[in-house]
# Entry
Amino acid sequence: VGSGVYNYTGIRGVCGLVWRNSGDCNYRDLKLSGKMQIPFIHFTLLSLSPFLFGFYVEVTAEEGLGKGFGDNIHWRSFDDGKKEAEASGLPLMVIIHKSWCGACKALKPKFAESKEISELAHNFVMVNLEDEEEPKDEAFSPDGGYIPRILFLDPSGKVHPEITNKNGNPNYKYFYSNADQVVSGMKEAQELLTGDAFRQSHAADEL
# Structure
């Protein structure tokens, strides 16, 4: 259930609340007889099971491709996403974030709870890249390596740096802090990277 450190910390925290008058949370300090220790430990583990199960569910949810950005969206890995975009003609939306980033954690529930983002996601190949999954290509950090960043790629896999958060900080053009900003970016990308507008611009680039 996660790492030993988290488990130990969680159990100790709960014990500390329950047995605050017994000093350090240690079975030895409770001075129970041998006959009482096994039932007591059994009872303690049962009483803690809801907390441990809740922790397990939370960690398991984060381990999926959604990584907290919404399990109702069909997420792909980066490699699979590029292949699907090329085959389907849909643009890619790529979120770059870190597991320890406070701003990333703040964006996740806003993103996941937005019905409009969920609906617009059907028009994209959705990818989110966490920690070491971030591409090394400089095209994915057009104005710096801050996080989170959201970038849009055409079906050929080319990053389009002109699609930015027009309602955000101009110094961090690919930083989105709320669902409305993300929706605006998705709508702009949909207009530029799909249909006739993209085909015409793509043909012009090839000439």
Notes: The chain is about 50% helix and 10% strand. The first strand starts at residue 75 and ends at 76.
